[in-house]
Amino acid sequence: MSHHDIDLSLMTPVFEEYGAQKGALIPILQKAQGIYGYLPPQVLKLIADRLRIPLSKVYGVATFYSQFYLERRGRHVLQMCDGTACHVKGTPSLIDAVRREFHVEPGGTTEDGELTVEVVYCLGSCALAPVAVLDGQVMGRVRKDRFIRTIKKRIAAS
Ligand code: FES
Description:
Layout: H1 12-18, H2 25-36, H3 41-51, H4 55-64, E1 76-81, H5 84-88, H6 91-102, E2 115-120, E3 132-134, E4 137-139, H7 144-157
Parallel strand pairs: 1-2
Antiparallel strand pairs: 1-3, 3-4
Helix pairs in contact: 2-3, 3-4
FE2/S2 (inorganic) cluster binds at residues 81, 83-86, 122-126, 129, 131.
């Protein structure tokens, strides 16, 4: 199954669990994201229909909480800090290197669905600048060549 196929029937047990309780919107969104990895538009529409609430309300909640993703995310997620300290220590050139190497813009996901790249602003570890986080693992004092190698290795390993 490709990344673009959305099997809506996977939501059936979720609705069985919660019925049509409007108050269950957040847990239902959490379950949906657990199933699909993000919240596809078709799924948001289905949830709105089932709970009989306006689609705009579902979008409102899904966009309000940062735990929810409306875009497909890659199997690996790379966050690059471009806060002041990291910026000064070279994050822009790291972002360029990632863009060239993996053909992905910040905020985007590679065509093959392997890597999502996000830019964040200060992870609170400025002493380690420049800082990046790959799949939840913090990397400090990032140097370009090793960084690119680490990402490639991670992708190859999965
Ligand atoms: S600016 Fe990057 S960790 Fe603070």
